[in-house]
Amino acid sequence: MIPRFRNLLGTEPLSREQIEFILDQTRAFQEFQRHPLKKLATLRGKTVALAFFEPSTRTRISFATAASRLGADTMNLQAESSSLKKGESLLDTVWTLEAMKPDIVVMRHSSSGAAEFVARHIDVPVINAGDGSHEHPSQALLDALTIRDRKGSLENWNVTILGDILHSRVARSNIHLLSKFGVRITLCGPPMWLPRELELLAPNIRRVWRIEEALDGADVVMVLRVQTERMHEPALPADEYIRRYQLTPERLRLARPDAMVMHPGPMIRGLEIDPAVADGPQSCVLEQVTNGLAVRMTLLFHLISAPATDAPHPAKDSHASD
Amino acid sequence: MRVVEKRQLLSAEEMDRTLQRLAHEIVEKSGGTADLALIGIRRRGVPLSERLAKSIAGFSGVNVPVGTLDITLYRDDLSTVAPQPVVQSNDISFPVDDRDLVLVDDVLYTGRTVRAAMNGLFDLGRPRRIRLCVLIDRGHRELPVAAVFIGRTVDTSDTEIVEVRLQEIDREERVMLVDRVS
Amino acid sequence: MLLIKNGRVIDPASRTESELDILIDAEKIVRVGAGLAAEGAEIFDAAGLIVAPGFIDLHCHLREPGQELSETIESGARAAARGGFTAICPMPNTQPVHDNASVTRAMVEQAKAVAAVRVWPIGAVSIGSKGEALAEISAMQDAGVVAISDDGKPVATARLLRQAMDYCGPLGLPVIDHCEDVSLAAGGVMREGPRSIRLGLKGMPAAAESICVGRDVEVAALTGGHLHIAHLSTAASLEHVRRAKKQGLRVTCEVTPHHFTLIDEDVQYDSRYKMNPPLASREDREALRAGLADGSVDAIATDHAPHHAASKDVEFDRAPFGITGFETALSLALDELLHPGRITLIRLVELFTTGPAKVLGMERKIAAGAVADLTIFSLEHRWTFRAAETASRSRNSPFDGREFRGAPMATVVAGRVVYKR
To answer: How near does any CA of chain A get to the CA of B1, in Å?
Structure first.
């Protein structure tokens, strides 16, 4: 039996078996997306609290749709209209949410560790939808599913991640997840955002300074979003970034002919990725979105339907039937 | 939970004869095999539906389509799901609209599984008719559900469990009545 | 009269380490010797205990005036007494900043009225600690400050530091600097390194401290003044200090108990591990421990930084820096330095007594005629620190629940026992 987990705070704590279980379970929800009637009553009467303290459209809509298709209701907290602006602390905001008795909290916040912090203080399971620069586990899971579906397995590929790795929670979650499957990871991006310590995150990680070298032999290329301006950091001019790190069709040809191109979105066409690549045959961006919905349905279903607790569950034998 | 075997309800030969009889009944009471399809409810309804289809093919020469349905997402009470719910996909490669469907399961008990199965089928389309075929009807219905094709009806108490053991899943072939012991 | 009998007296000033009795009258030590007796004296039996001169904490925050929710002079002093401290030096980053003599007088008065231990305030270097113009330093000194610092921040520019050191030379006041290159450290919440990368938290590189220490040491050479480095935390900073001492410069430094105990790998998403300077690398900790032993480090100072619960119970990024320290300082020193054999007992006592005293230009000794400030402690007494039971108003300590071997047992200030376990 695969060990249960109550919260999904990151991919680092998950075992291979747990990850494979989630990906296997997602198959049913991928199939479900092809039903003419995309509405289940599985989580009817359950409430999913979407606590997004950082603006997000895509991830929030993905989780909201996942909840809704499972028949659950959603409670929506958005940063712009949040009482946080009025000085209420994160804990008070979350305790207020908890008092309305959601069955799960899906949370995005700009501080690393915020999801774990909240999970320690409330008695409701928490899914981390992105905390600062730390983790974004559902993204890594949907990325892994996309790779597995296209390539047949997750084992031993060469994966290149391009961009500002230091500040990327998507990169970290992917690094933690993929390295559990023997994947060789190449990181490439502006040197001030590619510190040596990234190589210590997991086995089989290397940093490379030139994009040409980074793409050579790659089976999967993950392109990260760019934030050209950062607090407390000198800005990198966009033209510099394009010149050194943009994924163009010419550069993509250095990778394996069947290399997958992935992007967590939203893309800035013409900045980190050439539009021809974004729309080209190797681009998996739309599959990622579809898979994201299925993965999030899996997560909501499993974490809500039978939340892991410390109390032993009454044993059920495999013959119990109605 | 401990269980104690009480008695055997069907032997392997009895199971085989019963399934053959059910296969004939299904074809007779459907006026033939046109539009007919079998849907096995995971887990044990699946091998049973495959055997029924094989039997039908044997005496009628027609390969009736067989699909499988996972009802985990359609249950009305999540807390009765196993400690670790495992969702499988459905595998129904034919359109469901206007079909004459026979749902196949191993044991009919409260009727909730069948209700969930019907919810699942309606998500896929609008069958013309749904009837139920079970190997064992053990009574104690909690919903207005009835099987048209029944292998055997058995009287059971609340603590007893009917275990249909199939070669494909359990590596043995018989139907046992067992009792829960605290 | 108070007679402290049967204790093992450790007096660094006279290099004494023997079983001696101490007779105290009024506020002074009148006799030190073996087998003393005195009619009508209150007896304190210190059998099995160490008797040292009264400990001094060069660096703490009492939050009064202005932030009394977190701590007051009274509560902080009580916590200090429980930690064995007989004198404490509160930093000026209060509200308002302690940059003029009227604040000094208010603090000194309040301390006289309610504090269990001596309170020797540290005044600001610059007005408002804004780093622009010098504060009224000599007036503050007359009112009672023993040093100046803009702690919480570094002295803003080399030029201001030079002015301050030049000015303080004749006054005999040390300038204490919180060394941090703000351009490198800004936004950081922990030490930059493998742990900060894994946690996704913005880091402050070790160089942010040592670059500033290097700057300060050069200014010390330029002025000949007395520079004291607050809460030194890295090997590189310690190297600067060593070299400065070798060159005969008047540069001293202190290390906090949390820096010789914890490292960056210990940090979790828990603001009780967030302080500035942040917990450093394993190598830095080794260097600090060596420096504590070999004399390159002059003093242990707590940097006791209380924050009331609501302010610390937030996301790591948003939490204020700092942890409490009075009540765990000695026990940590015993557990991490003495018991594992990294330093000798007399050296440990120096770090709490003559070391800080020298920085302030004072004496600390056990001898007839000396002030009757004593710290009596046990090397063996087992206890568990519980933040909920602290005398401090704040509970932000990563050592909550930690079991210790060794503890302060009694604190004597001006001849009175102000704390007894």
So the answer is: 6
